[in-house]
């Protein structure tokens, strides 16, 4: 990566921002009927319309310059060649290799990782196929009908989001997910399940995560109480990089599916962490999921920056975060089955780029990762869209939409599409005081009432959005969609010069919780804390 002064490079965007702020987007559209054609592109099965952004050709050129001077392409190539770009953990970042479709070797630390990747994938396929067909059964010979994935963060959010998104492809086995250490999560999940027909996947990269091990031990107790401890081998599998810890939990050797330290937790759904997905949708659909991601990888690796979808999305994010100081980014799928997509992206984006130091440890003096949030439309329209349209914060939005619904409810889908397009149009156009006044006049409202009411009915418009359109939400499309956002996050991390692949910010809370536990349990005195924490502990003890 090139030596850089990020703040200086970002400051160069200011002249563009000042120019762009003079023009409302509705005028940009009025002045240029080619805008949609100019600012839209395809990558595999995804189509991106980014014309409803506060951009012109000149500002985009500056953004592409920024990508070049920041060394986005160099870092991308270093990542793909297996260099340890995750410097603080001294690791390569090779999740793309998990879905790579070519026969070429991928070398990490002198070893060809393609062979072990294929080996684990084949073992997953063999196991999934046998379990789904009833060739492998539970300890009493009954077919496994329910699978409970126990994991948290990247060992939960990816698979849970994906099986919900692909629910029309789920057959044979019903997937469940337990992540929270809150006992209600496991209790509600186990309630109604039959131990004889239930399989648990303990999914944890480290196999030490407290929430996961606590849930795994409770699940084991539940199963042993019903079927005896000897049944554990038939009802538990593990997915981890810590093979020794899986074995000491009592998991059979051939039921441990490994992965590697060069797969970050939030980038691991493509690895054996996706076992619950494969069990639910079958190995062939899982292959399609990988193929979709690989298609986007090829695009990211080879398309020129100016025609590179994740690069464009990443740059637009930097444009708004740094030149305009917009602090949040909403992802609004008009696709109910993507109901967990925003939650998934929160980890992918915020755990990756929520950083305040550069790669060399010096503090940043510019904004980095935005707050990512969202909910499916049309529900969001009846909740928080008020603020998006008329609030004091400008929130850049991604709309996600399938041209075809899975179900035979055509009118529903047409209405969904109309709503999605209407929202991006409304955000861009807004409604002027003149339009409001005219409308109210037309409706016969008195001049006096119009004067009072009109300001409330004005929409500023000029609010940016991307629309990502795809034919249908299939395993392949979903693979592409996730990879698109992974690479977008990469591009932004490269520009902000942060390490997008570590997550030290999650450690302090874990450390303090460990120290607090004996005090919560009443084994140690509630001392040596600030008066708030101490007071809360005492109050808690008095309420137990
Ligand atoms: O606490 C954060 C984190 O380390 C995530 O990065 C990770 O996805 C999650 O915990 C779960 O970790 P593991 O898979 O090791 O249980």
What keywords describe this structure?
binds 6-O-phosphono-beta-D-fructofuranose; alpha/beta; 13 strands; 544 residues; five-stranded parallel sheet; six-stranded mixed sheet
Written description of the protein model:
The chain has 23 helices and 13 strands. Helix 5 (57-69) crosses helix 15 (309-323). It is α/β, with parallel strands linked by helices. 6-O-phosphono-beta-D-fructofuranose (F6P) is lined by residues 151-155, 204-206, 209, 212, 265-266, 351, 503, 506.
Please summarize what this structure is.
By secondary structure, the chain is α/β, with parallel strands linked by helices. It has helices at residues 6-11, 14-20, 25-31, 35-38, 57-69, 72-80, 114-133, 157-165, 183-190, 210-227, 232-235, 243-249, 275-281, 283-302, 309-323, 341-353, 385-390, 410-429, 433-442, 447-457, 475-496, 507-520, 531-543; strands spanning 40-43, 46-49, 107-108, 111-112, 146-150, 174-178, 198-203, 236-240, 256-258, 328-334, 371-373, 397-402, 465-470.
């Amino acid at each position: 990566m090139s030596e850089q002064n990020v703040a200086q490079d970002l400051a160069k965007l200011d002249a563009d921002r000042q120019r762009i702020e003079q023009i409302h987007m509705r005028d940009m559209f009025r002045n240029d009927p080619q805008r949609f054609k100019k600012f839209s592109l395809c990558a595999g099965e995804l189509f991106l319309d980014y014309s409803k952004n506060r951009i012109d050709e000149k500002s985009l050129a500056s953004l592409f310059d920024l990508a070049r001077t920041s060394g986005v392409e160099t870092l991308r190539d270093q990542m793909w060649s297996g260099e340890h770009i995750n410097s603080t953990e001294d690791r390569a970042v090779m999740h793309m290799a998990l879905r790579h479709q070519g026969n070429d070797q991928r070398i990490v630390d002198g070893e060809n990782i393609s062979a072990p990747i294929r080996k684990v994938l084949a073992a997953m396929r063999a196991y999934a196929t046998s379990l789904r067909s009833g060739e492998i059964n539970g300890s009493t010979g009954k077919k496994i009908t329910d699978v409970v994935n126990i994991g948290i963060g990247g060992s939960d959010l990816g698979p849970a989001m994906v099986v919900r998104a692909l629910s029309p492809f789920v057959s044979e086995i019903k997937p469940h997910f337990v992540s929270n250490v809150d006992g209600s999560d496991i209790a509600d999940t186990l309630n109604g399940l039959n131990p004889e027909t239930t399989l648990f996947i303990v999914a944890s990269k480290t196999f030490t995560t407290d929430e996961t091990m606590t849930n795994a031990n409770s699940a084991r107790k539940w199963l042993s109480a019903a079927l005896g401890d000897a049944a554990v081998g038939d009802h538990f599998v593990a997915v981890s990089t810590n093979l020794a810890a899986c074995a000491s939990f009592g998991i059979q050797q051939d039921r441990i599916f490994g992965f590697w330290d060069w797969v970050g937790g939030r980038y691991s759904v493509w690895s054996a962490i996706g076992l619950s997905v494969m069990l639910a949708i079958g190995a062939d659909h899982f292959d399609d999921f990988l193929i979709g991601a690989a298609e986007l990888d090829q695009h990211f690796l080879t398309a020129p920056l100016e025609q590179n979808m994740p690069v464009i999305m990443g740059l637009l994010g930097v444009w708004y975060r740094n030149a305009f100081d917009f602090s949040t980014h909403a992802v609004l799928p008009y696709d109910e089955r993507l109901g967990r997509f925003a939650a998934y992206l929160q980890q992918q984006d915020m755990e990756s780029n929520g950083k305040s130091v550069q790669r060399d440890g010096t503090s940043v003096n510019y904004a980095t990762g935005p707050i990512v949030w969202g909910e499916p439309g049309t529900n969001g329209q009846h909740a928080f869209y008020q603020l998006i349209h008329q609030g004091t914060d400008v929130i850049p939005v991604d709309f996600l939409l399938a041209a075809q619904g899975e179900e035979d409810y055509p009118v529903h889908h047409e209405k969904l599409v109309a709503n999605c397009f209407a929202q991006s149009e409304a955000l861009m156009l807004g409604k002027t005081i003149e339009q409001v006044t005219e409308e109210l006049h037309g409706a016969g409202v008195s001049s006096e009432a119009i004067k009072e009411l009109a300001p409330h009915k004005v929409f500023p418009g000029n609010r940016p959005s991307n629309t990502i359109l795809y034919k249908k939400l299939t395993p392949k499309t979903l693979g592409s969609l996730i990879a698109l956002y992974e690479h977008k996050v990469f591009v932004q991390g490269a520009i902000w010069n942060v390490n997008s692949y570590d997550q030290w910010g999650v450690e302090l809370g874990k450390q303090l919780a460990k120290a607090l536990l004996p005090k919560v349990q009443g084994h140690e005195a509630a001392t040596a804390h600030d008066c708030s924490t101490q007071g809360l502990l005492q109050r808690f003890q008095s309420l137990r």
